Amino acid sequence: MRIALLAPLLLAACVSSDVSRDVGARCDLNSDCDGRCLGPSGDFPGGFCTLDCDSDTDCPNNAHCISDNGGVCVFACGSDSDCTFLGAYTCQASDSQGAGARVNVCRGG
Amino acid sequence: MSRRLSIFIVLASASAFADPPPAATTATAAAPADMSDQAIGASIGLALGGRVTPGGVRFEGHYLYQLSDHDWFDGTAAFTFGGDSPECFFDRQDNYVCDHGVAQGDSFEAIATVRHFLGGQGQYWPFLHGGIGLGYVRYAADGVGGLVIPLHAGGGIRVSITPDLAIVGQAELELGIGFFSHSVGTEPQLGANLTAGVEFRL
After folding, report:
1. Which of A9, A72, A99, B48 has its CA 20 to 30 A from that of B65?
2. How far is A100 from chain B (nearest CA, A)?
């Protein structure tokens, strides 16, 4: 029970410490990232560094591969509070790339 | 004849049980006998850094000058050459953060330390050293540079090979502060250096 209560906090703590040039850094240009930059937009406020992917296995452990932009990695979440470290991002269902399912990920809008 | 023999035996016995002659007074050496008042040295090794502390291959040049029986000033010029790839980014709070690996970045540093010899044995002389440096660090791929002021503390061993030549190995930790460009700002310095080299008396 305690673990279940702590899980969202642990997830948030884990995710927030994993912002990097791979996934999660703020960006304007691809050169701000190791992979590609999803420029500032309603879906990705402030810009979002990400990696191209075909499935979740191409993404870090705490991220899903969604079908936007041809397949990109974004942070997984369980609730909106898991996304607060990204600023104006909320936890939303999106199409998974390659798996034909819906997954919860942090994104704007 | 027997009287002479008796006297010989008595003298011999007395001599055998007499106190040994007092040993010559020997002063405990404070430093290697071949350590002159001035020396120069060169060493190579590894620097381990991370974040905004540079790491990689480390080259050092030393000038030693005797301060006291146990202590030598060690003026060091150190160069570190590490890998170069962009590792800085804007976090979600718009802070520019750098997360370089243990062997990335380049630096030059001038260091003033004091080497204090501990009790040695034969040609092996361990020592402690500590001091402060002033250097410049650069991460070219990120366009980030900074002035750093690290404290150095460590130890090593000096092994005399010939009267003019010694081998020195040492390990040290460095802890300090750096002032970086590109809005990275003030960041701590934390690293370790392992080097080995030669030393020549002047």
Report:
1. B48
2. 30
Selected from 2.40.160.20, 1.10.10.10, 3.40.1790.10, 3.90.180.10, the CATH number assigned to the domain covering B35-201 reads 2.40.160.20
* Extents of the domains making up chain B: 35-201
In chain B, what percentage of residues exceed pLDDT 70? 86
Q: How far is A77 from chain B (nearest CA, A)?
A: 17
What is the value of pTM for the model shown? 0.77
- The reply to whether residue B92 touches residue A87, judged by beta carbons under 8 angstroms, is yes
- Is B160 a residue whose pLDDT tops 50? yes
Across the interface, do B86 and A34 touch by the CB < 8 Å criterion? yes
pLDDT in tens, B74-85: 999 999 999 999
Nearest to A22 by CA among A62, A49, A55, A48: A49
For A90, other C-beta atoms within 10 Å of its C-beta total 17
Q: Say if the Cβ atoms of B89 and A46 lie within 8 Å.
A: no
Residues in chain A: 109
CA dihedral over B61, B66, B69, B71, signed as positive or negative? negative
User: B121 vs A5, which has greater pLDDT?
Assistant: B121
Residues of B in contact with A32 (CB under 8 A): 89-90
